[in-house]
Design a protein that fits this description.
about 450 residues, mainly alpha, single chain
Amino acid sequence: MDKSVGALGSEPIGLLLKKQAIPASVGILFMSINIIVDTIFVGQWIGSIAIAAVTVVLPFTFLISSIGMAIGVGGASIVSRALGAKEVEKAKTTFGNQLVLTLAISVILMIIGMFFSTEVLTLFGAKGAILEPARDFYFPVLATIPFLALCMMGNNVIRAEGKPKFAMYAMIIPAIGNILLDILLIKIIPLGMFGAALATAISYFLCFAFVFWFFWEKSSLQLSLHHLQWHRKIVKEIASLGMVTFSRQGMVSLVAILVNQSLFIYGGEVGISMYGIINRMMMFSLFPILGITHGFLPIAGYNYGAEQWQRVREVVYTSIKVASILSTIIFMVIVLFQLPIVKIFTNDAAILAETPFAMVIVFAATPIIALQLIGAAYFQAIGKAIPALLLTLTKQGFFLIPLLGILPLFFGIFGIWLAFPIADTLATLVTAYFLRRELQKTLKTSLS
């Protein structure tokens, strides 16, 4: 077995988390910078309405690409535990099935999205002046979504192999490519929204090219044709664990529909542009927390598979502690620099007047969300799909969606912003209860 894989069960937890989380955080940082810079270029060089157009398109395209992420995370959990138990052949068969599933499902959904483009765009909030620029952005990006889905799937498997630096490179390469292509296709060659879309589409292919090279040249999971054959038991486990991630993204997309529809009612195109800026900041600012969560998964999964219970508990507590400190710092920065942050995206007076305060409200529960993210990820890492699914749905499905339906009736657009921190707080309390109960069981097992 590759030494980098075996290290997951032997090296000190703090050092392991550092090795796994830093590359994951850097990769997510570059991906987030990519999204941020893309939005800045679109806002400054095309106009604030273009921010709204991107805001309504990306939730649907990410919904399709999240198929790859879901299959990747679900399969990576199996791969991590299989490698921990020295079952290399099972790990290879899992990866082969992941590959076939991701390609088939993402292509089918892409074709459906092409045929029902107007219905999809309208559903996600492309109304009024937003529709035409959204259409220009939609088609080129959607055409290359299968490449992005394969990248997201492969990235999780790369981390499961204990090679986080390569997973980081897979996120850095398309980010840099997209930024350079944005400058070329929006500023130098003024292609407008189509140029922004073309830059994004090419960047997806660049990511796919690197991931393909890794598995061809560097991976310990070298596949043969028989690894691609349908394995019902493994596919079922991938689906059950992957459903957690897909349900999360599905809820994110459903929330995007509700938020965009509500914002158009209470704030028009300006309201959707405001949310576009806030949403990009959420993606960007939480990169270290998401990086720790990604780094945590293979360590927890491997040691759970190896039945090293004390190491499992240690990585849970260490990850929550470090992530909570970082999330508190992030919130303080948002509060202190709220107006300068918004000015980076646009000079529109209407957006500058209201967005800074709204952003602080949305971020209000940031200091405590690390527990919710890592707690839900723990159940996914150890292969307990149902608890992982339920905990993943607590924020978006059980709390945020009902709050988005109720609070705006009483508080208008302020109620939309207020729903986010209330949902975060309630979801964290629920997760803390179930995580504590599960870890107590693990402690009893280690002492018996």
